[in-house]
Design goal:
The protein has about 400 residues and is α+β, with helices and mostly antiparallel strands. It is about 35% helix and about 10% strand. The protein has 16 helices and 12 strands.
Length: about 400
Amino acid sequence: MSRFFLSTVALSAAMLILGPSHGQSQTTTDGKSIFRFDTFGDEQKWTDTLQMQKVIRNVSPRTALAVGLKVDSDALPPAVINAIRAGQVNLDDPAVTVELLKLNAVVGVIGKVAGANNNLATIGITCALCHSTVDNSVAPGIGKRLDGWPNRTLNVGAIVALSPVVLDKAPFQSWGPGKFDPRFQIFNGKTLESLFSTTVPVVLAPAFGLKGVGFETYTGDGVISYWNSYVGVTQMGGHGSFSDPRIGVSVKQTPDLVTPKLPALLQYQLGLATPPPPEGSFNAAAAQRGQQVFNGAGGCARCHRPPLFTDVLSGPDPRVPFLHSPFEVGTDPAYANRTATKQYRTTPLRALWQHPPYFHDGSAPDLLAVVNHYNTQFQLGLNNAQKADLVEYLKTL
């Protein structure tokens, strides 16, 4: 049986047996389904405005995987999984991409296919696009979902730049994998509206380990639901309303398909636990010494206060975030200057082993670079052995 036969016929057969959603349901009270499958009506941006359905219908799975899109193996029937593992599915065939969308198997992308010719009619995105990945258990980019893990191989800018209506592609193409600029422009319900003439991308943040943290954005603009609302309406392009006079953004749309779902979405996100470090991924003895450096000579615990490893709620009023100026911590102020607070919160340290690069702008490629930055910034005087031990401890968090 040829690879070309399996590429479309096997997937089409699966559709006849399983149906397009493969048993995946969605309700307004199910935070997991909202996170994974709810577009909030953002087809108005990705289909009506950006016309991405015209692009994606011609994109092969290999190309999609190359820009960081992921495939949920739980949405695939066993026969198709076996065919992929055997190299019998033609990953260069755009028709396979359409079939995967029919199976609702592309993580964070919802496509509706209509007609006998498998016409890709609409495209929308969900929270999972940027804040989920897969375990690669079937093949690179194909496996079981890992919700809350930042997709650091996803090249959002490259995807947006494929749109036929985006004429100035350079800003988006400059982002690179795992980065996104939520302050560059907004979708106001009808068109794309520029906020700034230049782009300042930040790394996609993890959405796990958020319980109890407070003011979860890089700059402490608001709590989780504030950010979910901002992103859901102005960045994803959902049909809803968001307003913050501090940054001069106000979008009003009725009906509001975003706000009623924020409580359930919040509860699901708060339940996403921080993944533990893999066995054997750090030196236990060195990590014990590194913990002493963290709490002592390194002074890290002064701001990264256990157990949440942040001081954002340490101010006199818990309703007001405790923040730091970019100059205090030696961080580029460009992104902060575009936000409501103009400052940065202390990053809660969670699963650091899992998501390099570090800092909001990804300027530290590894944990040693982070340690070296603060060793210089605060003139700590740590020697090489202390720095190495501290890195091993950070891997455990």
